[in-house]
Batch of 2 targets.
Target 1
Amino acid sequence: MKRIHDDPSGAGRAVSVRGLVKHYGETKALDGVDLDVREGTVMGVLGPNGAGKTTLVRILSTLITPDAGRATVAGYDVMGQPRQLRRVIGLTGQYASVDEKLPGWENLYLIGRLLDLSRKEARSRADELLERFSLTEAARRPAGTYSGGMRRRLDLAASMIGRPAVLFLDEPTTGLDPRTRNEVWDEVQRMVGDGVTVLLTTQYMEEAEQLATELTVVDRGKVIAGGGIEELKAKVGGRTLRVRPADPLHLRPLAAFLDELGITGLASTTVDAERGAVLVPILSDEQLTAVVGAVTARGITLASITTELPSLDEVFLSLTGHRASAPQDATPADTREEAAV
Amino acid sequence: MSAHPSTTATLDQAPPAAPSAAAVTPDARISLRGHLRHTGALVRRNLLWIRQDPESMFDAVLFPVVFTLLFVYVFGGSIGQSLGGGQQAYVQYVVPGLMAMMGMNMAQGVGTGFNQDFNSGVMDRFRSLPIGRGSVLFAKIAVELLRMLFATVVLLVVALLVGFDITDWGGLLASVGLSAVFGSALMWVFLTLGVIMKSAQSVQAMGFLVLMPLQFGSSIFAPTQSMPGWLQGFTDYNPLSSLADTARGLMVGGPVAHDLWVTLAWSVALTAVMAPVAIHKFRTKS
C-alpha cells in the first residue's frame, strides 16, 4: 500500500496494521499484513473465502490474538489495551450476531446495558435505533422470526449502540438477496455519513465500489494490491459494457463493427453468444458514450445495454495472473444461498 | 429486573461519544458495580429466554416428579425393607438424596445452552464488548440456580404428597443451600466443557456419561452397605455420597459434620480449579 510510513503515533489513522501474522497450523490465515484506514473513510478489504479477511477483523476486534505484528484501532493497541479498544468499536460479524430468542428491542437494550448505559439511556437508545433502522414494528418480536435483511439491520443497529468510532463489518451482505443488500448498503452509507470509520470485508467488487473509498485486495493472507477505488479499477480494466442487439443475427456484425470503430483505447470485444451480447471492456465514461453513439448512428436496434464491474475473479486475474483461491465463492451475492441463519 | 431508578446516575453527564467513560477507572478496569450491572443484564437475557421458550422449564418440573415417583414406587418397597421399614422408610431415605441432586442436574444443562451460544454469533459480540469475561458465565450460573430452586420446590411438593416427613425445616434450607453450592461448583466444569466442545449434543452426551455413574455409584438412591467392596471404595469417596448423606442428616436427622466438610471441600476445590479454567477458555476461545 502507498500510505504506509513509519509514524508510530498513528495520528489521523483509525486503524493501523503492521506485519500482522496469524497461523492456524499449516494455514497462514494472515501472513504479514500491513493496512491503514484513515479516520472517516471506508476501507474495503476484498478477497475470496479463506483470504484472511475474517481473521483480520477478529484480531482488530480483540476476539483473537495475532502471532506476530502490531495493530491499533483508534490509537489503542489490540494486544495491550483491549478493554479501551472495545469501548470504541462496533462489530457486525459474518453471521448475524444477535440473540434470536430475544425480541429486537431486548437485543439492543442488552447491548446498551453491557456498554454501561443507564437503564433510561439504554431504553431510549434502543427505541431510537429501532426507529432509525425501520424495525420499530418488529421491536417486540423475537429476532429469530426476522427476515435475513431485518436481522442484518438489527445487527447493524446493535453495532451502533455505543456510538463507535470504528465499525467492523465482516461481509455485511453475504447471503442477502439484491433488494435487501441495497437496504444494507443504504444503512452503511448513512452510518458513514455520521462520521464513523468503517472497515468492511467483502467478496464483491460491486459492494466495494458502492461503499468503500479505498480498497485493499487480499489473497492467502497477503495484501496483493491497495489504493483508491478508481485507481484500482483502472488497474484491473474498469467496467465491461454488455450490449445486446434486439436481433440475434446482428450479434457478430455488431462486434465486428465495434472492433473496427477505432475509439481511442478501446480494447477488442468478445461475443457472448449464449446470452446474445457483445462484451466491450471500457475504461471511461467517454468510451461508454462513444460506443452508444456509434451503435445508435449505425441504426442497430438494441434490446439492452448494461455496464458490469469486473468480478472478483477478473480482478484477481488481472492483479495476480491467477484466479481467486476459491473461485466458487466469487459468485454474485444474489445467487448464493442464505448463509446467515 | 424491572426499571427502578438507575444506579448509574453519574453516567448521565458523560458525553454521548463515550457513554461509558464514568464507569471505568483510568486503566479501563471494570468496577465491581460494572460487573454487577453486566451480569444483571445477562441474567435478564437468560430469563427472557425462559419466557420466550417456557418448554425449557419442562426438565426442571418433570425431573423431580418423574424421579420421585419412579424411585419411590418402583424401588421403594424392596429397598425400604432392607432399611427396616417399607416404602415409607425409602421415601425418608431417597427424597433428601434427590434434593441434593437438583444442583447437579441443572449443572448438566448449563454447558449445553452455553455451547449453543457459541454456534451463533452472539458470543462474538459479547466478547467484543468492554465487559468482564466472567459476567457471561456468572449470569448463566445465576439463572441455573434459579431453575434449581424452582425444581426443588416442585420436588418438595411431590415429596410431601408421597408422605415425606420433614423433621427439620432449617435443615431443609441448609441442604438446599449446600446443593446449590455444590451444583454451582459443578457448573464450572460443564461450562468449561461447553466452551471447549464442538457441539451441544456432545456436551450433553459427555454430561450424561460423567454424571450417570457418579449418581448411581453413590448413596443417593440406595444405601451403600449392600454394594460389593470395590464399589464401596468408590462410593465412599464419591462427593455425591457426601452430599446426599449431608442432606439426609440435615433433613431427617443423623450425623452431618464430616460429610458436610467433605462436600464443602469438594465445592471449594472444584470452583477454585474450574472457574479460572472456564473463564480462561472462554477468554481465549477463537
Target 2
Amino acid sequence: MAPNVKDRPVLRRRRRSGGRPSYWSGLGAAFWLVIVAIPLYFLVATSLRGSGDYMSEGPLAIPDNLTFDNYLNVFEVGFLRFLGNSLIVALGAVGLVLLVAVPAAFGIVRSRSRVVATTFSLFLLGLAVPAQAVIIPVYLLITRMNLYDTLIAVILPTAAFSLPISILVLTSSLRDVPGSLYEAMALDGATNRQVFLRLVLPLSRPGVMTVAIFVGLNAWNNFIFPLVLTQSESTRVLPLGLWAFQTQYGTDVPGLMAAVVLSSLPILALYLFGRRQLLGGLAAGFGK
Amino acid sequence: MRSTYTTERPGFVWVAPALLFFGLFGLGPVLIVLYLSLTDWSGLGAPEWVGLDNWVRLGEDEQVRSSLGITLFLTLLCWATQTPMALAFGSWAAGTQKSRAVVSSIFFLPLLLSTAAIALLWKAILEPHYGLPGQIGPLFGFNGNVLGDSTLALYAIAFIVLWQFLPFHMLLYQAAARQVPRSLYEAAELDGASPFQRFLRITVPQLRHTIIASSVLMIVGSMTYFETVLLLTNGGPGNATRILPLYMYTQGFVSFEMGYASAIAVVLVVLGTGLSLLVVRVTGYSRMTSQREGI
C-alpha cells in the first residue's frame, strides 16, 4: 500500500507537466472558439458577397463569387473622411492626455504637499464617474464654448475622462523609479524641469506607451461623445459613420459589413504588429 | 545654503493643468448635472429654475421604474455570465502551452472591433429573414425574429455584451493568473488536489483583487451597453430593452427635455458610483493589504 500512495502524486505531476489539458476547460474553450469564430466568419464572408448573393445564399455559405465592390463602395460614401476624423480625435486625445498627465504623475509621485495628495484622490474618485451619465452637462459646456460640431468638442471630454486611469497607470510606473536617481540629480543641482525632462520622461516610456494605446483606442471607439457633440458629415467619426451607413443603406448588408471590416483594419494592424503592447494597453493598470 | 539643499520637490503647479482640465470636463459636469436636474431646459437658451419639479415627475414616472429594473437585471445578467467565464478562460489562457496562446489570440479578436461595429455585425447576423436565426429558426418552429421578441431581445443583448467584453475581462484574469506563484499549485498537486479543486482553492482566492476590479469595471461599464441597445433595438420591442441610460438619452436628445434627463442622469451617477463602492466595501477590498497572504 505504502509505495502506491507515494507514487500516485508523482505520477500525476508528471502527466500534468507533460501538458495534459484539462478536458472540461478544453471543451469549453473549443465551444467559445466556435462562438467567436462564426460571427467573424460571417462578417468577412458577407463583406465579399454581391448584394444579390446575400439574399440567395445562406448566411454562412462560402461566397460563390468573391467581389471587392462592397469595399470600393464604402470609399465612395466618405469612409476616408471618417477615418481621418477618427485619427485626429484619437491622436488629439492621446496628445492632450499625455501633455497634462505625465507632469501630474511626476508631481503626485514626488511631491510631499497635501494638496497634491488630495488631487490624486480626486482623480481616483473620477474613475467611478461614468462618462455616459454626464453627456448633458458636457453638451452644455461645449455649446457654451461655441465648440459644438467640431472635432475639438469630441477630443476635450474624451481626453478628460481618460485622465484618471492614465494618471493611475503613469504614477504606478513612476513609483518604480528608485529615489536615489532623483537624489543624484538633485545633488547635481538639477531643477524640477531638468529632472522631468532628463529622468522622468525617458523612464516613463512604458507607462506612456500603455496610456497612449488605452486612450487612443477609447477615443477611436468612442460613440457617445461624437453622437451628442457633432452632427454634420464633415465632423463624423468612424463609429458614427457606420451607424449612418446602416440608416442610409440599411438593406445593403454586404456593404455595411465591408465598412465594419475597413473600420477595424487599423486596430487589426496594431494587433498583428504589436500584440503585446496593444493587449497591455487595453488592460491598462487593471491587469495586476 | 545651496549645499544643504538636498532634493527639490515638485509642487502643485505640476498637477494643476490636469486637475483644472479634469475638473472642467470630468468632475464639473457631475455638479452641473445636479443643477440642471432642478431646471427646465430644452438644450437652447438658458435653463429655467423649476425646483424639484423634475424629481417629482421622476418619482411618478412608470418608465423610470421599469427602465431601472431592466438596467439592474441586464447589469446583473452580464456580470453573472461574464465573471465565471472570464475567470475560467482567463486562467486557462494563462497556461503557457502553444495551443492556448493560439486559441486565446483568436478569443481576443472581438477587442479589435468598436461597440458600434459589434452591434451592427450582430444586427446583421440576427436579421429576421436572411440572418442566422431566420435560416435555422423555422426548423424548430421559431420565426427567427430574435430582436423583435420582448424576452429574447434582452437576452440577445446580454449575449452580445458577453461576446464583446469577455475577452477584455479574460485579459485581466490572464495577466493576474500568471502572477499566482507556481509553488502553490505544486504543493496542492503533491496533496493530490484535482485540477478543479486547484482552480477553486488556489486560483479563485488568489485572484480576488482582480475579481473585484473586473466587477467594478463591469458595473461602471454597464453604462456603455447603452450604445449596443441604441443600435440594436433602440429600446424596443415596445419598452422591453429601454435601459435607463437610453431613456435619459431619448429624453435629453430626442425629446429635448434636458432638465428631466439630467434628473435621470443623477440617478445613473449615484447608481454607478454607489454600486461600485458597494462591491468594494462588501468584498472588503480596502481591508486587504497583501495579495500574497500565506506565502
